[in-house]
Design goal:
alpha/beta; Rossmann fold; two-stranded parallel ribbon; 11 helices; 9 strands
Length: about 280
């Protein structure tokens, strides 16, 4: 059984706090749930897969932590509202909300079905919107500071070819997070757009792909496995963002900052670099 990632002396403690993580059955969400539990929080582990959520709860319990599992499709507004109602009905409120659930997509625009667009937007963007809609009024009403971490992506800061639906959804998450933080910071709620770079998680194996990207799926997975970082790095950066109240959190900085800065200096060079990176990944 996996031992949860240990924090270090510089990590904030979350003793007595309540944290909710969506998409927590695998990948980045799983590592977030494990780390928050290790740092003392009681964690609501939310995932569309019942077995996945319960497995993470079992890991947390085995390490002496506190967690509960919830089976929720975050693209279902009624299900997210019911989740928020049940969490706050426990009377302990919520200190950290991680809207993390997401799916991947790749392929040429002309081969992308309308249903692909709708599915990616429904999970990656509307899922975050539903989380904000259902939880923010309750966070404000509870009358204590809170932090929201919305998982975006490097692809929400710098666009990539053959990723139009995914980039659209993640740019939306960044814009939503920036707007919400500007509005809510003065009322005790901070918002972070967490922007992972090349992270090796199951999202690649489960992503919808078309055309050349589908044919090169294994090459893409291999590139992420050998060149990327593991999702525990992103979990640590999420905790750091909360500690330092960062609006945009690159993760890792070595992946995200160079292309993001290049885009701000020269959008045309950034576009060229993005095209080259897509070719490199699929070699």
């Amino acid at each position: 059984m996996r031992i949860p990632l240990l924090g270090n002396d510089s990590d904030p403690r979350f003793d007595g706090q309540v944290v909710l993580v969506t998409g927590a059955g695998s990948g980045i969400g799983r590592e977030m749930a494990l780390l928050f539990a290790n740092l003392g929080a009681s964690v609501h582990v939310v995932d569309i897969g019942t077995e996945s959520a319960e497995a993470v709860v079992d890991e947390i319990a085995a390490a002496g932590g506190k967690a509960s599992a919830h089976t929720v499709d975050c693209s279902d507004s009624a299900a997210v509202e019911a989740l928020a109602e049940s969490v706050f009905a426990e009377g302990k409120g919520l200190d950290v909300l991680c809207n993390n659930a997401g799916i991947g997509h790749g392929g040429p625009i002309e081969e992308t079905e309308l249903g692909d667009w709708e599915r990616v937007i429904a999970v990656n963007l509307m899922g975050v919107i539903y989380g904000m809609h259902s939880f923010v009024p309750r966070l404000l009403a509870q009358g204590r500071p809170a932090h929201i971490v919305n998982t975006a992506s490097l692809a929400g800061l710098v666009a990539s070819p053959q990723m139009a639906p995914y980039c659209t959804s993640k740019f939306g998450v960044v814009g939503l997070s920036e707007s919400a933080d500007a509005e809510l910071a003065g009322r005790g709620i901070r918002v972070t757009a967490l922007c992972p770079g090349i992270i090796y998680t199951p999202i690649l194996a489960n992503a919808t792909m078309h055309g050349e990207m589908e044919g090169n799926r294994q090459k893409i997975i291999d590139f992420y496995r050998t060149r990327g970082v593991t999702p525990d790095v992103v979990a640590k950066d999420a905790v750091s963002a909360i500690k330092h109240k960062r609006l945009i959190q690159p993760s890792p900085r070595s992946h995200v900052m160079p292309p993001w800065l290049l885009k701000r200096i020269s959008p045309s060079l950034s576009e060229l670099a993005s095209r080259q990176l897509v070719r490199l990944i699929q070699r």
